[in-house]
């Protein structure tokens, strides 16, 4: 699977997996931000030079280096400052391969956030994975390569692979991995290489692949994801909705508190829980109200691991629960 590029023109963000440029005036200029431990953060300008910039430009597919911009030229970032004292030789394929202090260790402020300006390539290809045959968050997995969609073989496809799929689609955590063309056979070409995600990748295109399998569309893999946030101003804030019995529904705010919200934020890779709004703070949902009186300790890895009293309750959508997490997926 080739490197996945995504251009968000309305937010002035250009991303290649775990590195992105923010707040520039084109896709190859902006403040350098890196994705680590479930959160985007900035890079300090200490020791930063054109060699480092060349690595970032190459990693983003942006051609030759033009300039290095320090002192928050593209505006100060927010949240974590992940990297400091970065020293690249220039041959690295990623900024993560360069010498640097321990991730998160720094003596900087956001007024020192570094930026780069690279030359733009002639063209880019923009696409993303998709689930087909069910809904946005459930269905047969299809991945792009070149100008062609491919279905994925179910051989060795596991929970870690599914976690990356659900994360990239902003669909929470995976409920099920289904083989044998559970959402019908695809008519795309067959991607037969084995996918080997660690589970913490931000995008599916970053997962390694290995030996090929002799597969047919009888072995198309499907993924069903579980939790999502709706109605917020970022992917890490909104009304909590869960997928059950093939239908999205809300969570009643009876007993809803920060430990519950902490589990949702962790499950979505959105950092810490800042608040647990009640009373349909992010608007009223529709359809079933699936869960009430959740009793999470806060240490659970998924909301489905918390104590709950069955599925489907009589309640009003004016009581829909929400969360606001510290992270920002954009």
TrEMBL record:
Signal peptide feature range: 1-24
Q: Could you tell me the superkingdom of the organism this chain comes from?
A: Eukaryota
Where's the SRCR domain?
19-119, 129-226, 227-326
Per the record, its GO cellular-component terms are: membrane
- SUPFAM superfamilies, alphabetically? SRCR-like
Kindly list the cysteine pairs connected by disulfide bridges.
Answer: 44-108, 57-118, 88-98, 197-207, 296-306
Keywords of the record: Disulfide bond, Glycoprotein, Repeat, Signal
> Pfam families annotated for this entry?
SRCR
Give the protein's recorded name.
SRCR domain-containing protein
Record organism:
Sinocyclocheilus grahami (Dianchi golden-line fish)
